[in-house]
Amino acid sequence: MAEQKAAQIIQVRSRESFVHRFHGDGGPREVEIFEEEIRHAWADEPSITEAQKVALVRKYLGCSVKDELACYPAKFTAEPEALLATLRRAYDSNTNRGTKLQDRTITELEVEERLSRVEENEEKIKKNVEEIRKKMEETKVENQEMFKKILQKLEEPTQTKANRNDRQRMPASIGSDACFICGRRDHFARECRENTTSGRRQGNDRPRQ
Fold first, then answer.
1. What is the separation of C-alpha 94 from the centre of its chain, rounded to a whole number of angstroms?
2. Where are the domains of the chain?
3. Which of 19, 71, 160, 178 is geometrically suited to a Cys-Cys bond with 172, CB 3.0 to 4.6 A?
4. Residue 16, class by beta-carbon neighbours within 10 Å (0-12 exposed, 13-18 middle, 19+ buried)?
5. Can you say how many angstroms the Cα of residue 47 is from the centroid of all Cα atoms in its chain?
6. What are phi and psi of 206, to 5 degrees?
7. Could you list the residue ranges forming a coiled coil in this record (predicted)?
8. Which residues in 77-100 are b (16+ Cβ under 10 Å) and which e?
9. Across-strand partners of 22?
10. pLDDT tens digits for the chain (209 residues)?
11. How far is CA 138 from CA 24, 46, 133, 142, in A?
């Protein structure tokens, strides 16, 4: 049993010896060669698992490539096919002309990630705006009530003074207890008028000096 396991290890190592380390600076052809060698290594081991495939790819990646791949979300590097697709997208001539990830301006993956963040931020902004709008409406109603009370308090003394002045300026009516001619209470205008008229007459009847 131990001899069989040792033979399998030797066989796997012999197959892996054909895989060259991928540094990402050999142009688009380097991507093609690396993928071919990796797929041959996978095919020679039918019982290899998905996790082992990913481990095998990462084993032969250069340090700079590993550092760059660390910036990607896990869904683009956790599975073997996704990992190879990410390498092609980063270094293939049809996409980036063989340039390294650090030399790229932006990738499709970055665009997708940024769009996702923008959508999340938009949702947060909408919620914040809605909360602010509700608070403004509540504050507006409260302010209106407060201003209304203040105006009422300011208008009360003015209105009271105006009413008092109106009463002072208003002449006594015919049914009141004050004369509207002389202003005395318990004195009616008719009597005041008669007294005034009789007084004038008496003054006219006096002999002239």
1. 39
2. 2-104, 106-152, 165-209
3. 178
4. middle
5. 51
6. -65, 140
7. 108-149
8. beebeebbbbbbbbbbeeebebbe
9. 61
10. 444 443 344 344 545 557 888 888 877 788 888 989 999 998 888 889 999 999 999 999 988 888 888 888 877 888 989 888 888 888 775 554 444 444 444 566 666 777 777 777 888 888 888 888 888 888 887 888 887 888 787 777 666 665 665 555 555 444 555 666 666 666 666 666 666 555 544 444 455 54
11. 60, 69, 9, 6
Measured between alpha carbons, how far is 195 from 209 in angstroms, rounded to an integer?
Answer: 25
Structure token pair of residue 112: 């997708």
Identify the CA nearest to 87 among candidates 115, 112, 105, 107: 107
- As given in the structure block, the two tokens for residue 54 are 């990913």
The pTM for the full model equals 0.39
Q: Is the distance from CB of 185 to CB of 178 less than 8 angstroms?
A: yes
